[in-house]
Specification:
mainly alpha; 0% strand
Length: 319
């Protein structure tokens, strides 16, 4: 099935192709780490993943051992990167810390002073993950240091590529894939996942001084930042949120075909991650689009109940 490329995707796909061929990790000088130390490093990543994302932890549990460990090292790398930007301190201090972290995780020699960096270096080398994607992720997260508003969806999609699509592209190398034709699907799925996070976290992000919703689309629905500040959930807000949910749902559906391009032993895990995150959108709808006084989520029992259906659909080419 040929994916109809949207105008906002062209630049993102160009960035994905550029990173794919940039600084291949096959050029890295791998420094062997003591296996005991490496095991401790991976276990540390397991703890970080379990603590911060029950959904990702559950989905990654469906992978074979080595791929499971590598995806949790990837999650921990992303979590540490994000935390650096969200920590206290001046913009200059956080930027310096972020650049120090960049040097540590993209250094051609495996670092030995940070368990996440140790596990991530091993995962990058083991699965030949292009370091260009990690570099792009750090650049994407760094935008939060200075940018707090996005005028259009195209602007927001560019941000979403940096902080989420890059994660999917790195995960794709861990899972394994049969064609670079999978790249546009991974990019689109990353945007869908990030949109879900954005819609879920509107209230929390606002309290932290950030608004990720496209400002021009807010205006089209007769809304302003004052309405976000007041926690408005009237018919204007409901229509706006439904518009955003419809877009995210469409992106999930359009990206599903790409799961069939992944290695068979990883399809179920990626399908589960996508479907369980998509379920958050339904929870938002069920609670009258109130993302100001509660954080939407899916209960563990409901996640488990969804897994058999996800497994079956992960064997199909369509949703």
């Amino acid at each position: 099935m040929a994916l109809q490329i949207q105008s906002w995707e062209n630049m993102l796909l160009a960035r994905a192709q550029e990173a794919l061929h940039q600084n291949s990790v096959t050029e890295r000088k791998f420094v062997q780490t003591d296996m005991h130390e490496l095991g401790i490093a991976y276990e540390h990543c397991n703890h970080i993943t379990r603590f911060h994302s029950k959904t990702f932890f559950m989905a990654s549990s469906l992978l074979p051992f080595e791929k499971r460990q590598a995806t949790r090292a990837l999650y921990a790398f992303c979590r540490i990167t994000d935390d650096i930007v969200d920590n206290s301190g001046t913009v200059e201090e956080r930027r310096a810390h972020l650049e120090e972290w960049r040097r540590k995780v993209i250094n051609p020699r495996q670092p030995i002073d940070n368990p996440v960096a140790v596990a991530w270096a091993d995962a990058q080398t083991r699965f030949d993950i292009p370091v260009g994607y990690a570099d792009q992720l750090i650049d994407g997260v760094a935008r939060d240091l200075t940018q707090t508003r996005y005028e259009t969806f195209e602007d927001l999609a560019s941000y979403s590529y940096g902080v989420a699509s890059t994660v999917g592209l790195m995960a794709m190398h861990i899972i394994g894939y049969n064609s670079t034709e999978a790249i546009p699907y991974a990019v689109r799925l990353g945007v869908a996942l990030q949109l879900t996070n954005i819609l879920r976290d509107v209230g929390e992000d606002w309290r932290n001084g950030r608004l990720y919703l496209p400002l021009d689309e807010l205006q089209e629905f007769g809304l302003s930042e004052a309405d976000v500040h007041s926690g408005c959930t009237d018919e204007r807000w409901q229509a706006f949120m439904q518009f955003q949910i419809d877009r995210a749902t469409r992106l999930y559906a359009e990206s599903w075909y790409g799961i069939g391009m992944l290695n068979r032993d990883g399809r179920f895990a990626i399908a589960a991650a996508a479907d369980l995150y998509r379920a958050i959108l339904g929870d938002i709808q069920q609670h009258n689009y109130d993302v100001f006084t509660r954080r939407s989520h899916v209960k563990t029992l409901h996640k488990v109940r969804r897994l058999p259906g996800i497994w079956w659909r992960s064997r199909q080419k369509t949703v």
